[in-house]
Write a structure and sequence with these properties.
Blueprint (H helix, E strand, L loop, with lengths): L1 H8 L2 E3 L2 E3 L4 E4 L6 H9 L5 H7 L1 H4 L11 E4 L10 H4 E2 L1 H10 L3 E4 L14 E3 L18 H11 L7 E4 L5 H16 L5 E4 L2 H7 L28 H9 L5 E4 L3 H4 L17 E2 L2 H10 L4 H9 L10 E4 L4 H13 L5 E3 L3 H7 L9 H9 L3
Parallel strand pairs: 5-9, 6-7, 6-8, 8-9, 10-11, 10-12, 12-13
Antiparallel strand pairs: 1-2, 3-4
Length: about 375
């Protein structure tokens, strides 16, 4: 026991997270949960499974099988070394396990017409459209005042973990979830995760479905969208004019990016000098690789983009596919300097600007270089 007390003395407080040495022992107390221990020592409740796997001989497969005075091993790799998908992209099985050990806020962003299928138990509701702007420029997020109202009335706390639930699998619907993730992070949310496959995946795996959603206590929120990951039209104009460095990435399929008229001439479809990086391709890469973010990172790094040195700006038509590319690059694989232009081509046109054909190199590659 003396060595355990000595190890406990070595636990230091670092920005609210207790730093740990490798293979540190932890003696459980009454009321402990794996999620609570993970948040205290690793900074995220999503690391609960890391602790469970390191202590299978003691607690078995049931993550709730904790009692006072058990000596758990807190393994290495729970912070910077841990897989990023523990905290940003989870799956129905992980959410189900997470609900057994913690109480994350589950945010259902589906269209109200889809509520007839039921809800993930304890889910709160804010439809996707409540995060969006006007019909003329829908990619632009709602105002700070509108977002503060809808989030406060829903009782969604940004200082507590949030898991976003969209409708079903597929890049466009996943992009809706990624867009809301981007909004919440830009508003200051501390821990946000996107559940792969959405409500449909939860339902298909046979997990419980509730007839009613959860109502959280409302509060008065005063939120402001940070510009850290937001590229506005003025910044886009700077990149287009050459006054600012950067790479514009069109997340739409190549069939849109390289669209031609009846005579085969390229149409003006995209922002000037943009590259094509289809989010659909990244989605397929991640899925075919068994949700391996390293395969996705290799795919993204294989594109002719100076990811580290340049300002990389993702856009599409109204923000969804662009948000998915941003999520994959910035959040899942940890590439820096990636921003989202949520207004995308619709907002560009709304501001009085014009679109351009794809760059000649992209057109040439499409005509003469085939896989």
């Amino acid at each position: 026991m003396r060595k355990y007390l000595f190890a406990a003395v070595l636990l230091l407080l670092n920005s609210g997270v207790q730093a740990i040495a490798c293979e540190t022992p932890y003696v459980t107390r009454k009321g402990d949960t794996l999620g609570g221990i993970a948040e205290r020592y690793y900074g995220s409740i999503f690391h609960h499974d890391l602790i469970r796997k390191a202590n299978l001989d003691l607690i078995g497969e049931d993550p709730t099988n904790l009692s006072p005075n058990q000596v758990l091993t807190l393994p290495c790799g729970g912070s910077a070394e841990a897989p990023l998908n523990f905290s940003v992209l989870i799956y129905p099985k992980q959410l189900f396990a997470l609900k057994q050990v913690a109480d994350p806020q589950i945010l259902d962003i589906r269209d109200p017409r889809q509520y007839t299928a039921g809800f993930i138990p304890e889910a709160s509701l804010i439809p996707y459209t409540d995060f969006r702007g006007s019909e003329e420029n829908p990619g632009r997020p709602a105002s700070n005042e509108a977002l503060s109202t809808v989030i406060g009335e829903a009782g969604l706390r940004l200082d507590q973990p949030i898991v976003i639930i969209h409708s079903k699998g597929g890049p466009f619907d996943s992009g809706r979830g990624a867009y809301v993730y981007w909004v919440l992070k830009s508003l200051g949310a501390r821990q946000v995760a996107l559940m792969s496959g959405g409500f449909k995946a939860w339902e298909l795996e046979g997990y419980p479905v509730a007839e009613e959603a959860r109502s959280l206590p409302a509060y008065r929120a005063d939120l402001t969208l940070a510009s850290t990951w937001w590229s506005d039209r003025r910044e886009i104009e700077g990149v287009v004019s050459g006054k600012m460095s950067g790479t514009l990435l069109d997340a739409r399929p190549s069939s849109i990016f390289l669209k031609r008229n009846g005579s085969g001439s390229p149409l003006a479809t995209t922002l000037p000098n943009a590259q094509n990086a289809p989010a659909t391709q990244a989605f397929r890469t991640l899925s075919s690789a068994g949700n391996d973010e390293m395969a996705l990172l290799s795919s993204l790094k294989g594109q002719e983009v100076d990811w580290q040195a340049d300002r990389v700006i993702s856009f599409c038509d109204t923000g969804e596919l662009a948000a998915l590319n941003w999520f994959y690059a910035s959040e899942l694989t940890g590439i820096e300097n990636v921003k989202l232009y949520p207004e995308s081509t619709r907002g560009w046109l709304h501001g009085g600007n014009e679109l351009a054909p794809a760059p000649l190199k992209e057109i040439f590659d499409d005509l003469f270089i085939k896989d």
